[in-house]
Amino acid sequence: MSAAARVTAGVTFAARLAFEHIGHSYGPDAVTLRDLSLSAEPGEVLCLLGPSGSGKTTLLRIAAGIEPQSSGRVLLNDREIAGPAVFLPPEQRSIGLVFQDFALFPHLTILDNVRFGLTALSAEQARKEARIALGRVGLEQYAGSYPHVLSGGEQQRVALARALAPRPAVLLMDEPFSGLDSRLKDSVRAETLAILRQSRATAIVVTHDAEEAMRLGDRIALLKGGRLVQVGTAQELYERPADLFVAGFFSELNRFDGRVTDGAVDTPVGRVPARGLGEGAAATVAVRTSGIDVDPNAGEVAARIVSRHYLGVVEQLEMAVPGAESTVRARIRCGVLPSAARDVRLSLRPTDVLVFETAVENA
Ligand code: ADP
After folding, report:
1. Which ligand 1 atom lies nearest to the CA of residue 50?
2. End-to-end CA distance of the chain, in Å?
3. What is the rounded distance in angstroms from the CA atom of residue 75 to the CA atom of residue 90?
4. Which domain holds residue 302?
5. Distance between CA 202 and CA 126 in Å, rounded?
6. Contact at 8 Å (CB) between 129 and 4?
7. Which of 34, 50, 132, 216 has the most Cβ atoms closer than 10 angstroms to its Cβ?
8. Do 155 and 289 share a domain, yes or no?
9. What is the per-residue pLDDT across 106-163, written as a single tens digit (0 to 9) for each?
10. What was the pLDDT predicted at 360?
11. Does the C-beta of 33 come closer than 6 Å to ligand 1?
């Protein structure tokens, strides 16, 4: 298919992008990705989440064709676009890119910025397509203006329009909101999601922010050290984390180490069931700070408040608990605990208690 046909047809919308056993290294001692298999389904927003250096950007660059993988394959709608025998250059992949810094040309009008990637079309057709894309992000009235007149959020929408204008099968976004100030972020993120839904493009979005991934992603793929740790919906990752790392990425935790005896683990905050763990196994108990009820009188465990910080909707408490090596933290709703309370009782909400076999790397 010619580039022009691909650009105008728009039939490649809602494609599936799959990574199969991807390996990558920047040098002999710099392995970045290890045997990573993952797919973004048609029309889905998939978030790549992980700490800095976990390989998210590298995976995105491999999808775009900017970086070759060392092993494995990338498939678009079951067609190999990068593998041992094939390597399609970026411009033949039907993939759009949005970067963190928007990368708009200051000396070009907004319309010309959006038109920039439409080189396969006639000037007139390109202008028409660029106007459609600008309309999709609600900025057609700025077509003749220059980027500096726009707010950060609007510039981000122009960058999105530019990426969507050639009607890519897949849109890749690398930390697209990190350049925005925190007040703008929520609204721009919501607008972007609405535009992605309307365009029906499959999108892969890189972020290091778990809450952002939960707000945006139909599914989240969590990476660590170049490996895929877990992929699923926000609810699956939050409620059934595969390990302590996943749990800690989605909530603030108190952590206690112990051993399984008679199917449960003793901790300073109580005895908790250890489903699925063998007798005598070393166990790590993680208790969400939001999952501890604090009451002046009722509760199984005695504690003494050592610090208390008002955060608006919630208060953060630190408490000394007999037998605990460090203070136990809890987040409770403001106003539920009398301000004079000092000696209190704790109880744990079972859904906020997670028990894992202690891994060497968690120890
Ligand atoms: P993330 O996007 O999750 O922060 P990256 O994919 O950017 O992770 O980086 C993964 C690892 O590869 C990091 O250890 C990083 O230092 C390294 N790395 C990234 N880019 C290069 C490069 N061009 N040359 C050498 N090492 C790199």
Report:
1. 3
2. 55
3. 14
4. 256-362
5. 23
6. no
7. 50
8. no
9. 999 999 999 987 888 888 999 999 999 898 888 999 999 999 999 888 898 899 899 8
10. 65
11. no
Question: 20, 31 in Cβ contact below 8 A?
Answer: no
Look up tokens 């660059």; give the residue: 61
- Which of 281, 296, 283 shows the shortest CA–CA distance to 332? 296
Atom of ligand 1 nearest to the CA of 52: 4
**Residue 222 β-bridge partners:** 49, 230
- Examine the domain organization and report whether 98 and 212 are in the same domain: yes
CATH of the domain at 300: 2.40.50.140
Q: Could you tell me the pTM of the whole model? A: 0.89
What is the CA(201)–ligand 1 centre distance, in A? 27
108 and 153 assigned to the same domain: yes
Q: Strands across the sheet with 301-310, in order?
A: 292-295, 343-348, 301-310, 314-320, 328-333
Q: Are residues 35 and 121 in the same domain?
A: yes
Do 93 and 216 lie in one domain? The reply is yes
Please name the residue whose Cα sits nearest to atom 16 of ligand 1.
53
For the stretch 23-57, pLDDT in tens is 999 988 889 999 999 999 999 999 999 999 999 99
Q: At 215, which CATH number?
A: 3.40.50.300
Q: How far is the CA of 249 from the centre of ligand 1 (A)?
A: 20
